[in-house]
User: Fold this.
Amino acid sequence: MSTQTTAPGFGETLSSVSDVEGWMTDAQARRLWDAASRVGAPGRIVEIGSFRGRSTIVLARAAPAGVEVVAIDPHGGGDRGPQEITPDATRGDEDFRTFHANLQRAGVDAAVRHVRRMSDDALGEVQPPIDMLYVDGAHRYGPARADIERYGARVRPGGSLLVHDCYNANGVMLAQLRLLFGSSNYRYVGRSGSLAEYRRERLTGLERVRNALHQAGGLPYFVRNSFIKVALVAKQPRLARLFGHDTGHWPY
Assistant:
């Protein structure tokens, strides 16, 4: 549970995570920060997929006093990023140590409850309701769908769901299409790159159609990212740049 009495500002927090490894743009950090800041005490923020703590620090620093921050990550050395799927215990233990060292350096280690389990095994560790859920776990369709479906069911009405790698990772995109495009429970708020934000609301009839169309506006971004990833895998950075990619990193 967050015990901060004087919350640092967003700019200071962004500077504090500049050297923390992870996949989160400044605009995505801002969206996470704003969503976490809106949670009132006693509330609960749950993150699925923490890696080395980049997003965790943002969430913990933004959370008002009295709000619980739960980080779920098995740190098994797998699902660490693009083309890093296979578990590796040695690498996972290093991620675990680095995660807590980063949180400690940022002054939030004691404010975060870390559940070192796979998300499907950690459901019993998280009591409903959830005020803000951030899903950035395994990006294959099965795990992504399970995380959104099972944990999303515990988000309270009016609460927030944010999903990373929407309109980007194929598995997450399929889960988004299956669970969120036609959802009667989640209204699409918007996105920052591949980070999509939803608010739990009851939608009926025409609202659901409009909600689906609103999300469909991001499909060209998904197509663009797919071409960029093919170009990067083929070691064709010039081709990736033709699609608007301006770094050597995977699109996020």
Remarks:
- The two ends are 30 Å apart (CA to CA).
- The chain has a mean pLDDT of 91.
- Residues 10-217 form a domain with the Rossmann fold fold (CATH 3.40.50.150).
- The longest strand covers residues 155-163.
